[in-house]
Amino acid sequence: MTRGLRGATTVLENEENQMIENTRLLIEEMVAKNNVHPADISHVFISVTKDLNAGFPAKALRKVPGWTYVPVMCMAEIDVPNSLPKCIRVMMVVNTKKEQDQMEHVFHHDAVKLRPDLVNGGSK
């Protein structure tokens, strides 16, 4: 079975190193909490809000050993008025035996506002 695994983070500035580092930390926690290995990952979509264009957050994954062949794509998030600024969202599709409600989604920094019901296992 494939399952979607959500994650999101924010940065303080539109700065490439900050975007890459916050994305790396987010991805590392997503895979650790869900016991995911690179071979389990079908693909990863990463979106950024329009105020982030200093770099590709997908570069973060290229720094993690074993992720060379994981397909990753960056894209622009839709520009909704009054949405959370400077936000990086991740949708990871993984092969797993876990049920949908067993997936542990991860939100860092201001992104905890996106799904407070899922923060710290809130839906379980």
Automatic annotation (TrEMBL):
Coiled-coil ranges (or none): none
UniProt cross-references to Pfam families, sorted A to Z: CM_1
Signal sequence bounds: none
UniProt binding sites for prephenate: 6, 89
Stored Gene3D superfamilies: RutC-like
Domain of life the protein comes from: Bacteria
Keywords, alphabetical: Amino-acid biosynthesis, Aromatic amino acid biosynthesis, Isomerase
UniProt keyword Cytoplasm present: no
EC number, UniProt record: 5.4.99.5
GO terms for MF: chorismate mutase activity
Entry keyword annotation includes RNA-binding: no
Reaction(s) the record says it catalyses: chorismate = prephenate
Gene Ontology biological-process annotations: amino acid biosynthetic process; aromatic amino acid family biosynthetic process; chorismate metabolic process
Protein name per the record: chorismate mutase
Lineage of the species this protein comes from: Bacteria, Bacillati, Bacillota, Bacilli, Bacillales
